[in-house]
């Protein structure tokens, strides 16, 4: 009998080209390399300087997402092509030139398949179980939802992977995050991962790859599993993953890059064998009672500073550690929140529905559940930004854009948008946003802007009432227990 192994260990073993030694990391083979405009330019420059070609262009694909405008028509249609817009445009043009020169397939602005890198990989069937997936982007952990080992890498590693299709890695430890029970109505995948981040803390999973297990995780759709895996990095994890199962296979079957015919059957048989073996052990395990979870929201300036939406702002003075206490006070001063006050009822200026965490069709449907037949509060600007052109078309096919527009929200083109504020969509200083994205760092959504992370249901509820609101009060039959 072979030694029982975890999902992570099976993937690691399959991809090691050269084992780790005392003084050198392991060499890992990379099955899929995703590229975007922000972290690739210097990597291509490096290849050019050294006269190296891209080793496996067919395992590489690029999209434009971070710096692209989300107004229809792209750069050409912008009212002002100021310096900032010109430099964004130069960035995407550089990517287009690099892809043409190095033979890398590209989904440019205007392409029907363009979108946020972590949304398009799965929806095109590029991301598959058992793969190693890398991208010069920390939220590459999203792809782990498929039972892939998916890492974010830095720009110099992007160059390594372009040149060699391999990556140097020291072997991470394993952490099981088990979410048992069943989620109550109005509680979503975003609430699960915000609770995980609050439980582990921002550095809590450093050096580990998380495998999410338990009844709640098994019951999530692929889109919801992506939301969970997406924010693994916010707890410090190297990657997050979910073992592939029938939900995974049903999502993948028929997608453009998924195997077909006999190759599909063989792939599914292989993928099924990836699940963690009975008796395999993790370096650490954490259990969360999913049945006890309530909608979550952050109050501070890192994603681990989250509480149930009906809780009060935590008092920093209750923290024993001096550095943590000072950090918490600084966060509350920045956020303009007072310890002991309820979060619910706090006025909101902007609601952002989008980002690689929550911009897929199911997220937009959740938002529409709340917004249908209602109106965005007069003091609120609400933006709905689909994660890809494909999501946009699917949402329009079922009329969701009408729901948003009739409610007074903006319906925009696909991209990172206000998640990162490097494309013209941003908060003004002092504005407070409820956002479905994944980072609430100081100034993340615009200099001086303040961000509270929450689910699409919670964000939509804030849009309607103009204040932080428990979404269960607005859902049919979903009053808080
Ligand atoms: C621009 C990119 C390097 C960055 C990342 O790595 O995550 C961005 O996507 C983000 O979300 O902060
Ligand atoms: S949507 Fe946000 S988190 Fe995701 S890749 Fe873009 S900037 Fe990064």
Average pLDDT, rounded to a whole number, is 97
Q: Tell me the radius of gyration.
A: 22 Å
Contiguous runs where pLDDT drops below 50 for at least 5 residues: none
The termini sit apart by: 49 Å
Which ligands are bound?
Answer: 3-isopropylmalic acid, iron/sulfur cluster
Helix content bin? 25-40%
- Secondary structure tally, helices: 15
What is the CATH topology of the largest domain? Aconitase, domain 3
- Using the alpha-carbon principal axes, give the shape: globular
* Main beta sheet strand tally, sense and closure: 5 strands, parallel
Give the class from helix and strand content and strand pairing.
alpha/beta
Strand order of the largest sheet: 5-4-3-6-7
Name the CATH superfamily assignment of the largest domain.
Answer: Aconitase, domain 3
Q: What does it look like?
A:
This protein is of the alpha/beta class and 481 residues long. The chain has 3 domains: 7-169, Aconitase, domain 3 (2-Layer Sandwich), CATH 3.30.499; 173-244 and 269-292, Aconitase, Domain 2 (3-Layer(aba) Sandwich), CATH 3.40.1060.10; 299-475, Aconitase, domain 3 (2-Layer Sandwich). Helix content is 32%, strand content 16%. The protein is built from 15 helices and 19 strands. The strands form 5 sheets. Strands 5-4-3-6-7 form a 5-stranded parallel β-sheet. Strands 17-16-15-18-19 form a 5-stranded parallel β-sheet, with helices on one face. It has a 4-stranded parallel β-sheet with strand order 11-10-9-12. Strand 1 (16-18) and strand 2 (26-29) form a beta hairpin. It starts with 6 loop residues before the first helix and ends in a 16-residue tail after the last helix. The structure holds 3-isopropylmalic acid and iron/sulfur cluster (SF4). 3-isopropylmalic acid binds at residues 38-39, 66, 137-139, 152, 420. Pathway: Amino-acid biosynthesis; L-leucine biosynthesis; L-leucine from 3-methyl-2-oxobutanoate: step 2/4. [4Fe-4S] cluster binds at residues 356, 416, 419. It is an enzyme of class 4 (lyase).
